[in-house]
Specification:
By secondary structure, the chain is of the alpha/beta class. It is 42% helix and 17% strand.
């Protein structure tokens, strides 16, 4: 058994490396064979594979052929942080296909399968739901064709099962608990317990914000450590998708704690309205605050300027990357992420002496291969407007149910799409807020400590993260309101004008949820 596990792990690692290359390069779909989809509910000796995969923490996706049992194993981690698309066999097309991304040329060749409107192109692929699958191969006695029997396996890790259920013990507060939670702590008192001195729960006073901070720091440390290999002098291959908002400021500050001060950190910021976009304004303000708490660090704000009207080819390319996502909101987010991950922009470089320094804007391309992204913060900490609506309609329980729904569908709505758009640039997205230990820590915190939606925007939403920011000394970032990338970068405004004529017309049409029509070739 030990020898088998060693051989299996080597094979899994090899397959994961090949799959990563497929994601980072120009991936093509993997056609396995013509099969009939059936249900396989038993299999001797196969339980060890899902058990082993259940022990892996962090993002993964794989396709693995186990020759001894003639079984194809495939799947993605429990939260769907890596992309894997599937075309299940159907009456019209009996192939099982797995791919990291939907290639445009391949989709076009399959458009004759569906109806004349060409919508089959959009529906050919779907996000593989999270989990481990097996397909045992055998030959049909009637015609000699290969027949695959597909089974989805349960996670064997009890902690993972609990995280997937996403249940919280403390949802509705007693009046006295809520009153205590709402007591304000002056900014200066947060730093009485130095953030750099908190190394474990046993060493701190165990305030909820401190527990979350510890878990987040460890999550960033794990994701930054991989970037320390093959580094060049003065350059670290870890960057932050940076809006200057609450989530990205926390990630940047924690990344600073994890890296030697001699390394520079790239902060990637995209704008479709030059210096006037809200995210550009907050990013510049954010860099000033980061320099205040970490003056020895060389922060490089990479300003990526874009004009949507000139991105015709790029837009078509991103449409293939976001597939099977297919709304204008998906496309807007995808374009913004794709451009940000490319890291091709401008930085302000100082000229002159240190006493009388001036700056000039020079061309710069980030070479960082790892990109820290704040995905999962809003879902877990009640950062969306609909969370406040649910809370007002049904109080704490309805809020919890809405947040649970968000976390259980984040793989389908967000993560596969985002991973594909970032990976297309040869970059790897890493999600510290979706670290298993961070998720568990946040679930252990009472809901009224996570958010208090009776309070104003910028105070009660994502309350726990605002307290974390204050502990880090990020007082200005701690009061910033939530702003999604499509609005902060102003790509949504430009898209509305381009596709609907005006923002008013777009709002009347609920433009964000409108499906993009793509005629068949």
């Amino acid at each position: 058994m030990v020898k088998f596990l060693e051989e299996f792990m080597l094979t899994v690692i090899a397959m994961m490396l090949k799959f990563s290359w497929k994601i980072l390069g120009s991936a093509a779909p993997v056609v396995l064979m013509n099969i009939t989809r059936t249900c396989y509910c038993s299999g001797k000796g196969q339980s060890s594979v899902p058990e082993l995969l259940s022990t892996i923490k962090g993002p993964w996706a794989l396709i693995y052929w186990q020759d001894s049992s003639r079984t194809v194993w495939f799947g993605r981690d429990a939260f769907g942080r890596r992309s894997l698309l599937v075309h299940w066999p159907s009456r019209e097309d009996s192939r099982l296909l797995l791919s990291s991304v939907s290639p445009p040329s391949f989709i076009n060749t399959t458009s004759d399968v569906g109806d004349e409107s060409g919508m089959s192109e959009l529906n050919f692929w779907e996000e593989l739901s999270c989990g481990v699958y097996s397909m045992s191969m055998g030959a049909s006695e009637t015609d000699g064709c290969l027949v695959g029997e597909i089974r989805k396996h349960e996670w064997s890790n009890s902690m993972l099962q609990e995280l997937i259920k996403w249940e919280r013990n403390s949802v509705e507060p007693k009046p006295e608990e809520l009153s205590i939670s709402r007591i304000k702590i002056p900014n200066g008192q947060h730093n009485m317990l130095s953030v750099r001195s908190i190394r474990s729960p046993q060493e701190s006073v165990l305030l909820p914000s401190h527990r979350v901070l510890i878990a987040l720091r460890e999550a960033v440390m794990r994701r930054a450590a991989g970037g320390m290999y093959n580094r060049q002098e003065g350059h670290i291959p870890v960057a932050v998708l940076f809006s200057g908002g609450l989530d990205s400021m926390i990630l940047a500050a924690l990344l600073d704690e994890c890296l030697d001060p001699k390394y520079e950190i790239d902060l990637l910021n995209v704008s479709f309205d030059s210096e006037s976009a809200p995210d550009r304004i907050s990013a510049r303000a954010g860099v000033k605050e980061l320099k205040r708490i970490a003056p020895s660090r060389r922060w490089k704000l990479v300003e990526i300027d874009a004009d949507l009207s000139k991105l015709t080819f790029e837009t078509e390319h991103v449409m293939s990357l976001i597939n099977p996502a297919k709304t204008y909101m998906d496309l807007n987010i995808g374009i913004a992420l794709w451009l940000a991950a490319g890291g091709d922009g401008w930085v302000h470089e100082g000229i002159g002496n240190s006493n009388d320094e001036e700056y000039q804007r020079v061309k710069y391309k980030s070479e960082a291969k790892i990109l820290l992204v704040g995905s999962g913060a809003d879902e877990q900490c009640a950062g969306y407007g609909r969370h406040k609506t649910k809370y007002r309609d049904g109080s704490w329980l309805k809020l919890h149910e809405e947040m649970k729904l968000d976390m259980q569908r984040i793989w389908k709505r967000n993560l596969g799409r985002d991973d594909r758009c970032i990976a297309d640039n040869g970059k790897e997205a890493r999600f510290p807020f979706l670290d298993e230990d961070v998720i568990k820590t946040l679930l252990d915190v009472p809901l009224w400590e996570i958010a208090d939606l009776d309070q104003p925007s910028g105070v009660g939403d994502k309350k726990i993260l605002r307290e974390v920011a204050q502990v880090l000394g990020l007082y200005e970032a701690a009061i910033l309101p939530k702003r999604a990338i499509q609005f902060g970068s102003r790509i949504a405004r430009e898209s509305n004008r381009k596709n609907f004529g005006s923002n008013r017309a777009a709002n009347q049409a609920s433009a964000g949820s409108v499906v993009i029509y793509r005629p068949s070739n």
